[in-house]
């Protein structure tokens, strides 16, 4: 299921970066992409109404700016996929920084895991995310007590 979320997230980002080969399908607007993402994060991260408002604002702004950057690049005739990926990466990083300000620690870690980052975290027996090294220390400590 985690892979499905990662795939959906990546697909939405790459949608804006790939030059459309089939002209009969209209490209999604930034607001549409952001709305889909907000619904996804609202459910996955169990956002409060206030958090949903901020996530919506962040994604609407950042997607619009990313789409504008991509359109500028298309207008200049750039065709290198690496260039488009670099622009995507820049806006993904801006999303990550902004989300850290809005989400609590557990939500933020879940967000990182869902976008393919946060590999240093693992869910503990308590259902919360912990750094892998901390879990290993706890495990070693509990073994030494026995």
Descriptive overview:
It is built from six helices and two strands, in the order H-H-H-H-H-E-E-H. It has helices spanning 2-17, 30-44, 49-75, 81-102, 105-114, 132-145; strands at 121-123, 129-131. Helix 2 runs antiparallel to helix 3 (49-75) and helix 3 (49-75) runs antiparallel to helix 4. The longest helix is centred in the middle third of the chain and has 27 residues, at 49-75. Residues 15-23 have low confidence and may be disordered.
Report the biggest beta sheet as strand number plus sense, adding barrel if it closes: 2 strands, antiparallel
Structural class: mainly alpha
**N-to-C CA distance:** 37 Å
Rg value: 18 Å
The poorly predicted ranges are: 15-23
Enumerate how many helices there are, as a single number. 6
Question: Which of globular, elongated, flat, extended, rod-shaped describes the shape?
Answer: elongated
Q: Strand percentage, roughly?
A: under 5%
> N-to-C SSE series?
HHHHHEEH
Mean pLDDT: 83
- Got a strand count? 2
Overall helicity: over 70%
The main sheet orders its strands as 1-2
């Amino acid at each position: 299921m985690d892979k499905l979320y990662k795939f959906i997230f990546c697909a939405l980002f790459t949608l804006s970066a790939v030059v459309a080969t089939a002209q009969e399908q209209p490209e999604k607007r930034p607001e549409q992409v952001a709305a889909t993402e907000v619904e996804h994060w609202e459910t996955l991260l169990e956002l409060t109404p206030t958090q949903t408002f901020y996530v919506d604002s962040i994604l609407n702004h950042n997607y619009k700016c990313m789409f504008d950057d991509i359109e500028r690049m298309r207008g200049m005739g750039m065709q290198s996929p690496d260039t488009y990926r670099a622009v995507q990466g820049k806006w993904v990083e801006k999303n990550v920084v902004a989300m850290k300000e809005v989400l609590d620690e557990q939500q933020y870690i879940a967000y990182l895991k869902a976008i393919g980052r946060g590999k240093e975290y693992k869910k503990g027996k308590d259902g919360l995310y912990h750094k892998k090294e901390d879990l290993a220390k706890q495990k070693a400590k509990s073994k030494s007590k026995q």
